[in-house]
Amino acid sequence: MIDEGRVVLPGDKVAVTEELKAGDGTYEINGEIFSSIVGIFRIDRKKMIALVEPITSVPLVIKEGDIVICEVKQIGDAMMICRILHIANKKRQIAGEKDVAIHISNISEEYVENIGEKFRIGDIIRAKIIKAEPVLQATAKEKEFGVIKAYCTNCRNPLIRKNNLLECRVCGSVEKRKIADDYGEGDIDRGD
Ligand SMILES: [Zn+2]
Predict the structure, then answer these.
(1) Which pLDDT score, from 0 to 100, does residue 96 have?
(2) Which of 17, 79, 140, 164 has the most CB atoms in a 10 Å sphere around its CB?
(3) What is the DSSP letter of 115?
(4) 28 CA distance to ligand 1 centroid (A)?
(5) How far apart are the CA of 174 and the centre of ligand 1, in A?
(6) Is residue 171 part of a domain?
(7) Residues 72 and 17 reside in one and the same domain
(8) Ligand 1 centre from 167 Cα, in Å?
(9) Residue 28 is part of a domain; what is its CATH number?
């Protein structure tokens, strides 16, 4: 079981049903409880329920240099658009719905022909804001940036890292991504 108070992502395992029941912000599969949202893991000890609370409070302005956790929403020829879910080390809500653009030249240190070779829609990634105005732009180039959590394109289960590839333990699919060096460790507050 993970520590209470930790920020978790959709698909992160938070507890097992031998210990707790699945509450708000979670779901259960085969005796394991997973987070269904980006939020803070809590335990209701009276009822022995696992909960994930949405991250709320003061709206936050995004600045150049911020490390952001985003979900890939759209992939084009020249750039991809990601929805910002969280700013590292700031347990506050983002003001409005914020999208960030990542240009193909900022996807990887290697030459990239198609962004779709490195990222897929629905991937959770870590990136750094390089421009805040007039539109937010980020880079995923360095080794700490890239995908931190990806879901199987066949069955949507979280993919497990196997060397430099990602594998689905449910359907066996093997996929490629530009992964961050800590893929799968789930520390979304790294950076800063
Ligand atoms: Zn699968």
Answers:
(1) 65
(2) 140
(3) G
(4) 18
(5) 8
(6) no
(7) no
(8) 8
(9) 2.40.50.100
- Residue 115: domain span: 67-147
DSSP H or E run through 72: strand 67-75
Q: How far is the CA of 74 from the centre of ligand 1 (A)?
A: 21
Grouping H, G, I as helix, E, B as strand and the rest as coil, residue 116 is helix
- Give which of 161, 166, 167 is closest to 185, Cα–Cα: 161
Ligand 1 centroid to Cα of residue 130, in Å, is 34
Splitting the chain (192 residues) into consecutive groups of 10 residues, what average pLDDT does each group show?
83 93 95 91 94 73 90 94 88 73 94 94 96 91 95 92 94 95 83 58
Neighbouring CB atoms inside 10 A of 47's CB total 10
pLDDT given at position 169: 93
Residue 61 CB neighbours (<10 A): 10
For 13, the token pair is 């395992």
* pTM of the predicted structure, to 2 decimals: 0.72
